[in-house]
């Protein structure tokens, strides 16, 4: 059995250390990189090209959902497993729509996570019990409509700025995180606010929460 090279992304260090120990206790899994930041997770995948990315749903810098979207578009050979405390169908549906092959609840057993890693490597989807793939597919069909999703009109950079702005970073802090000028950061924020029809920081944060880019609490 060939070794599965894996990148692990979770913003809680103790959780990440426990997950790494769990995964590396399996002879066929080798964690080649880890991070607690969403932006860094995408960069690690770019540098290391792992077989599997295990990423928390809620991450600073870039949400797990947006990490999933970007990795799927840019590095399609990397399979993605989402870790989440949220079992609601909208979260699962969004993760699958963005390109995740696995969705594992944090309340699941250790065996569930390792099973998810092996299943996605073999081309299968994995959802933690009691999640049902059939139920998710029915939910997707029920909620599908022809209206334009304004979030889809944003560029990759605008999505990054949206996440960081929603986390409360200033234009200077955003420019530093993304290695762009403060003027460029301001321009991206202005453009995304216009595209989304938002008028102030409160509306921006509310939108980010509704899109599950930020936790509810």
Kindly state the percentage of residues in helix.
40-55%
Helix and strand content put the structural class at alpha/beta
The CATH C-level class name of the largest domain: Alpha Beta
E-strand count: 6
Measured by DSSP, the beta-strand proportion falls in 5-15%
- Provide the CATH topology of the largest domain: Rossmann fold
Shape: globular
- Strand/helix succession: EHEHEHEHEHEHHHHH
- The tally of domains stands at 2
Specify the CATH architecture of the largest domain: 3-Layer(aba) Sandwich
Mean pLDDT: 88
The CATH homology group name of the largest domain:
Response regulator
| Tally of helical segments | 10
* N-to-C span: 43 Å
* Largest sheet data: 6 strands, parallel
Rg on CA atoms, Å: 17 Å
Main-sheet strand order equals: 2-1-3-4-5-6
Oligomeric status:
single chain
**Poorly predicted segments:** none
What can you tell me about this protein's structure?
The chain has 217 residues and is of the alpha/beta class. It folds into 2 domains: 4-143, Response regulator (Rossmann fold); 150-210, Arc Repressor Mutant, subunit A, CATH 1.10.10. The chain contains 10 helices and 6 strands, in the order βαβαβαβαβαβααααα. A 6-stranded parallel β-sheet has the order 2-1-3-4-5-6, sandwiched between helices. Strand 1 (4-9), helix 1 and strand 2 form a beta-alpha-beta unit. Helix 8 (171-178) crosses helix 9. The longest helix is centred in the C-terminal third of the chain and has 15 residues, at 182-196. The radius of gyration is 17 Å and the shape is globular.
